[in-house]
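Email to the structure team, subject: Quinone oxidoreductase model.

Hi all, the expression group asked for a predicted structure before they design truncation constructs. Nothing fancy, just the tokens so they can compare against earlier work. One-line instruction: predict Quinone oxidoreductase, return tokens.
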Amino acid sequence: MSHAIRVQATGGPEVLGWEQVPTPEPGPGQVLIHHAAIGVNFIDLYFRSGLYKTPLPMTPGMEASGTVLRLGAGVTDFAEGDRVAYVSMPLGAYAEKRVMPADRLVKLPETISFETAAGMMMRGLTAQFLLHRTYKVSPGETILVYAAAGGVGLVMCQWAKHIGAIVIGVVSSAEKAAIARAHGADHVLLADEDIPARVRDITQGAMVPVVYDSVGRDSFAASLDCLAPLGMMVSFGNASGAVPPVDISQLAAKGSLFLTRPSLVTYTAKRAALLAGTEDLFDVVQKGLVKIEVDQTFALKDAAEAHRALESRKTTGSTILKP
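Reply from the structure team: attached below.
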């Protein structure tokens, strides 16, 4: 037997229960992992609250790192004792032990700790595809990044600066503004400012070719107004709530804009894409070009407290759970 966080009915953080569960056995093509660290992400809150639908009861979580305990039939790419990490469906990471499809795992270099891995797989791979694939940022371009002091935001600020971009970050407090600046943001705006007006001033009227918005409902309209003609609105989160239905004619009226809602699941669906993105991420982290900040650590049994901290929007960097 082992322990896991179980959700019997959707709701607030209080529905995250600490329960004893059978230790699963790996089936064909699967690996049993003993978790060392588990990532906490906004998508976990969406499943817990019912915003995203999944059968109940369920164990949340899509991201973790740990050690391979046992192999299922047909698994040849891994061995018992291997250090591994993942960010993938199916849900179930909030557990001491779990089985995962072997083709969703990556081997973790000795130079990257379990804690760093659990704090970077979701955020780092998200930053990788946002900056390199959803909209390929070029040197000299000015980009707008919301939640610039959050987990994804801090990675994006550093990585975009490495590319050679000019980064405008948006944060919710003066304390977070200092953090964003320390991680590469050239200009930092507070969320209660007139963001389009500030962007217009910074860019001397040119506006920006891309906005990366993980805030959602509270920032969506302003984000569209920050874009140059033919610009791309990348909406990839709902920290303030889901974006209401959009009148698509707005995109034409505001300059033939592009709108996308990218998902890490789609961008890493093929193993080759997962491995390529991970190689890119591990490279910039190992070279010190991107530093992963794990600023909050909770015991796995205290997952409810971790969710409350994330929902308060008072966290910075990454939040992890330790079994």
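The first helix runs from residue 42 to 49. The longest strand covers residues 30-40. Ping us if the truncation boundaries need rechecking.
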